[in-house]
Amino acid sequence: MELIAKNISFKYPSAKDYLLKDVNLELDNNKIIGLIGDSGSGKSTLCKILSGYVREFEGEVLFEGKPLAKKGFKPVQLIYQHPEKVMNPKWKMKQVLEESWEVSDDFLSEFGIQKSWLNRFPQELSGGELQRFSVVRSLNPNTKFLIADEMTTMLDAITQAQILDSVLKIVKERKMGFLLVSHDMDLVETICDEKIYLKDINAAMK
Amino acid sequence: MDNLLEVENVSISFIQYTKGLNQRDLKVITDLTLDISEGEILAVLGSSGSGKSLLAHAIFGILPGNANLNGKIKFKGKELSQEDKEEIRGKNIVLVPQSVNFLDPLMKISDIAIGHCDSEEERKEKKIRQREIFEHYNLDPEVDDMYPFQLSGGMARRVLVSTALLADPDLVVADEPTPGLDEKTVEETLNHFKHMKDQGIGVLLITHDIHAALEVADRIGIFYSGYVIEIALKEDFSGDGENLLHPYTKSLFKALPANGFEVIKGHQPLHGEIIKGCPYYDRCDMKFDRCKEERPELVDVGNNKKVRCFKYEEGE
Description:
The complex is a heterodimer of chains A (206) and B (316). By secondary structure, chain A is of the alpha/beta class. Chain A is 27% helix and 26% strand. Chain A has a six-stranded mixed sheet, with helices on both faces. A four-stranded antiparallel sheet of chain A has the order 2-1-4-5, covered by helices on one side.
């Protein structure tokens, strides 16, 4: 199972310069890759392109040999820094989860989610707790590739270790692909098999 | 060294409506105690959403109307009333806010920095001083006429820092000054705080970023579930964490990717589910029976360190 980006170039309509130019990437489910780069180098935009959230770009993204589907469930799921921005504030957490899939109790406890939290609204939980939900929601059985864009940056070290530990377990169990974007070199060194450095503007180099 | 700021047993709660006209009193900070001396940087480290920014709001007297503040906040030994806070804020104690979003988007940078003036002469004097400080922080004259949205991340940070220093303060409170900045800018920002410290200014750094705290702070206050559970020296965060006292602080240190990435179970009790005894009871691996019912106080263990744990009471 491969996620391939071919000659990806991207610029904002109003901008003069390209943010990404001819980026080539080959990701699979055998290795955990860490993506690093200076801020402003376009890491987050690249993640959005790889997961199908940004569609206006040059080049192509192939997942299992085919372009990403425009409709339906996205097999490449993106988790980013702010869980409070990706949840309906008027839904209770139970509904937020069920939007994606029926999660078993064992699965919830693996991620340290208390059953009482299911009856709360997003604003009644802290960032760490919400991010647990965000991760569980994205781990729908149909998810084949997970992209974590600074997923644990806002969290304390213990919560970070807990969430990543559980995610890596599931990723291995289901043989999923996993791309970790982080500026924390220690973290990348600890959990990734390989690093990719995204240079400001030019192509990605291994 | 004299204590510049002392925060003693501060608690903050909010009155909230639950359903209809039913109210509840939600405690967000239960016991916050700390002190800062001249020329010292003290970091308050807590996870996001834990309510630590309220500490800054309490010091400046800008809590919202439905907030209840208890405990003492003393500046240079004098307990501050709301009127005192209004008098000294922006003069003796200044805030470095999180981002330029706190600035008036329709005012030019130099006008924001100078602030209110009673007379034209005062304005001229302040303008000269503002230019000096901006110059010192590498902000060119054209920055004076810019609007907040035109600043880059690093420039914005320098503007906020130099605006704060314009008042010639004794104490600077910085609320989350590092997120969203790239490494170079973070380092630059942290250097500004070191520079303030060298001038004898006390700095209270409120942050969730343990790397930033370890980089500049002299002491670090660990904020957990509405309590300060330990005030440790920066040097204690080294080796195997054997000099750290509270079991949570030890676990936090060992959970860093560079120190083993160790996983422990459990989560911080949320606001409203705080138990009667020690807030860390559920997760602690060296608890006593009394920890369940009794809440430990923050005790002084000498050498400017404090910890909230029965294990360290009366030399136990």
